Amino acid sequence: MSEPIECSARVRAYRECTPAERLVAIEQLAALECATRAELLDVITAADLEADWRVDGAPGMVPSVVATTRMGSTTARDIVRVGAALDRLPHLREAFAAGMLSWDQIAPATRFVTPDTDEEMAHDLPSRSAAQIEDLARQRELRSRPKGIRPATRIRAEQAAGLTLHLTGAPEQDPAP
Fold it and tell me: How many other CB atoms sit within 10 Å of the CB of residue 81?
């Protein structure tokens, strides 16, 4: 027999549950987290529209969210962006608040779902994984990019390699100094 694994009383209480009970608890808590985050997004979107960030002296909503919630700027930027998007996507927002979509699904979905596709996508996306939705977002962003426009990372790499983009769009080697 193996030695019992040490854990806190909090974890021990869940260890005494059956696997099915723990699974239900995980599902319910994840849904609660989505519902709570959906409400947070609504409050942040309202605060942004009312420019509440001026009250705390922040230069914008993202720095205000960072200061208020102690989350990182990347997360705060996503929160502000997704909240604004969901304000125009009521069906997707409802699916998220109901726990049918996770944060990892909803964040990339808001990069391509439009008010015209909102209802359809709210029914379709819960059956897809977060990775599949991220792939959809990337594919649609690539398709919507005007021809001849290159990603910023490629432009920076070409600049670092000494290439210059001329009006024709064809890179040429920079002349030696």
Answer: 16
Q: Helices 61-69 & 19-49, crossing angle to 10 degrees? A: 140
In angstroms, rounded to a whole number, what is the distance separating the alpha carbons of residues 125 and 170?
A: 40
What tokens does 38 get?
A: 């959906």
- Give residue-wise pLDDT tens across range 117-168: 999 999 999 999 999 999 999 998 888 776 665 555 555 555 555 544 444 4
Neighbours of 147 (CB within 10 A): 5
Per-residue model confidence as pLDDT tens digits over 43-66: 999 999 999 999 989 999 999 999
As a whole number of angstroms, the distance between CA 39 and CA 66 comes to 17
* Separation between Cα atoms, residue 1 and residue 79, nearest integer Å: 48
Q: What one-letter code names the amino acid at 39?
A: E
Longest dimension (CA), the chain: 75
Predicted structure pTM score: 0.77
